């Protein structure tokens, strides 16, 4: 798709055209507004091109100028001090200010102005044209806009970088520059492998005053000296805005991590991710003092003997998402979940590889949590045909997303799973690595699944043409089937 955007700073107006083949769409109006759009169709692509050239010539004659490439001699207004930018930093939720700032950039010939307006439109729903233009602008200007942050994944919202993903080597190199590029940064993800320099990089990070503005901090690392990293985080007086803290694979002791997470330094913290540490059940008692909305406690050391700690976590009546995957809680753990009436608001539950059996599912389903679950991960549990039949009966009445990957279902299990009321409610179903053959595929293609949108059947011996038959039978479903 081809496009031109022209502005008339003196009149405060803009005019833009997008066209492909014989179809055109123009939008015009006052700077700072979405303007009005009009579509036209022509008999041929040549006629459309001729009409666009005539319209461009007319606007240029009227005093409109086209936005220029920031790589040219035009100085980027975004790099200059701006009273409007300072006000945006003070009032980041004020989109009217962003729109006025975008006009300022556009008048100076900086394409970031158009980018801000496009993303503001997308935040309100937008159109495919907005989506296409956003992609074009990012492809063209992502590198110059990153201002030298090579290898860093920058993610934009409403025209500004709000999220970064980087390796600890990048953190070590760029820590002093992150907020120059992203003054409205709210979500920071740092990934690191085994290295003695991780702690040094984190120590430099926590010195930054801008940390107070983060709403999410994700540290995913294997560190040599986790106590020093926890200590560095503890040295920050207050993370005023932090809502989510992820400390994955840190290897710190129960006391170190839980003391940090439950400290008053995090007044707004409601979402905690502690996956891949060595935490046992004793940490639950302390952690349960903080009301949480989301907790990922997967791949720790919560076993059948310590899972009873969950029954005392009554402050978690606000909990909406809980992941206990990779902990050997077994049926005893499922019974505790079912008996904990305060967990009746949990909508997303992760129970992958917890040694769950069919009888345990029934115990959990009888409780309040059984009635609230919308998304359930039961992958890597030996549920077999018996478990599939129980699930199919409507065990979890609100369930719409189900992961049964590596659950040893086989063809008979798939048939049992789809032979009940639950199947008609599912929107997402994962059946990876279940030894589903051509017989199972025949069952899938004969069933009516009115709400299904996503189906994963990778890693199954589906037989020749099996994937094609599923896609033909479920034309509106996104089917993923890799070997």
Shape: globular
Question: Helix count?
Answer: 18
CATH superfamily label of the domain at 2-145: WGR domain
- Structural class label: alpha/beta
Mean pLDDT over the full residue set: 86
Beta fraction: 15-25%
Low-confidence stretches: 68-81
Number of strands: 19
Distance between the termini: 36 Å
CATH topology of the domain at 2-145: q64v53_bacfr protein fold
Structural write-up:
The chain is an alpha/beta fold and 483 residues long. Among the domains are: 2-145, q64v53_bacfr protein fold; 149-278, no CATH class. The chain is built from 18 helices and 19 strands. It has helices spanning 45-61, 83-90, 95-107, 112-123, 128-145, 168-174, 178-181, 198-205, 226-234, 254-261, 282-287, 330-339, 358-365, 368-372, 384-392, 410-417, 438-446, 466-473, and strands at residues 2-8, 13-20, 23-30, 36-41, 65-66, 153-157, 160-167, 187-195, 216-223, 244-248, 271-273, 294-296, 321-323, 348-350, 375-377, 401-403, 428-430, 454-456, 478-480. Strand 2 and strand 3 form a beta hairpin. Helix 2 (83-90) runs antiparallel to helix 3, helix 8 (198-205) runs parallel beside helix 9 (226-234) and helix 16 runs parallel beside helix 17 (438-446). The longest helix is centred in the first third of the chain and has 18 residues, at 128-145.
């Amino acid at each position: 798709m081809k496009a031109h955007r022209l502005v008339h700073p003196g009149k405060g107006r803009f005019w833009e055209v997008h066209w492909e083949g014989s179809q055109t769409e123009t939008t015009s109006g006052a700077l700072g507004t979405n303007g009005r759009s009009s579509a036209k169709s022509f008999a041929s692509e040549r006629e459309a091109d001729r009409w666009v050239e005539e319209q461009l010539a007319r606007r240029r004659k009227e005093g409109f100028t086209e936005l220029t490439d920031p790589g040219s001699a035009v100085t980027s207004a975004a790099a200059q001090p701006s009273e409007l930018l300072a006000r945006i930093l003070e009032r980041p939720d004020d989109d009217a200010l962003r729109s006025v700032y975008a006009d300022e950039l556009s008048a100076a010939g900086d394409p970031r102005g158009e980018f801000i307006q496009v993303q503001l439109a997308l935040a309100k729903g937008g159109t495919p044209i907005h989506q296409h233009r956003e992609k074009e602008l990012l492809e063209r200007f992502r590198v110059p806009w990153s201002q030298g942050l090579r290898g860093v994944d920058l993610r934009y919202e409403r025209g500004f970088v709000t999220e970064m993903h980087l390796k600890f080597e990048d953190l070590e190199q760029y820590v002093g520059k992150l907020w120059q590029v992203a003054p409205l940064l709210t979500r920071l993800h740092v990934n690191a492998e085994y290295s003695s320099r991780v702690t040094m990089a984190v120590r430099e990070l926590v010195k930054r005053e801008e940390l107070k503005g983060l709403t999410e901090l994700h540290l995913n690392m294997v560190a040599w000296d986790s106590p020093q990293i926890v200590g560095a985080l503890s040295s920050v007086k207050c993370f005023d805005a932090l809502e989510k803290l992820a400390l994955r694979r840190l290897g710190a002791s129960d006391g170190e991590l839980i003391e940090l997470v439950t400290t008053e330094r995090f007044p707004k913290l409601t979402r905690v991710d502690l996956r891949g540490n060595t935490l046992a059940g004793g940490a639950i008692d302390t952690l349960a003092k903080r009301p949480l909305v989301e907790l990922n406690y997967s791949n720790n050391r919560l076993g059948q003997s310590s899972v009873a700690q969950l029954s005392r976590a009554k402050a978690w009546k606000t909990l909406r998402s809980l992941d206990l995957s990779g902990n050997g809680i077994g049926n005893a753990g499922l019974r505790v979940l079912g008996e904990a009436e305060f967990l009746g608001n949990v909508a997303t539950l992760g129970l992958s590889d917890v040694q769950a059996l069919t009888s345990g599912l029934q115990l959990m389903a009888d409780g309040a949590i059984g009635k609230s679950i919308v998304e359930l991960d039961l992958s890597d549990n030996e549920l077999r045909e018996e478990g599939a039949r129980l699930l199919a009966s409507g065990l979890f009445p609100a369930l719409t997303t189900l992961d049964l990957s590596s659950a040893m279902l086989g063809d008979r299990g798939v048939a049992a799973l789809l032979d009940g009321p639950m199947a008609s409610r599912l929107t997402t179903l994962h059946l990876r690595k279940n030894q589903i053959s051509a017989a199972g595929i025949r069952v899938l293609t004969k069933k009516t699944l009115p709400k299904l949108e996503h189906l994963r059947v990778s890693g199954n011996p589906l037989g020749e043409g099996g994937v094609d038959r599923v896609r033909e039978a479920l034309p509106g479903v996104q089917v993923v089937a890799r070997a």
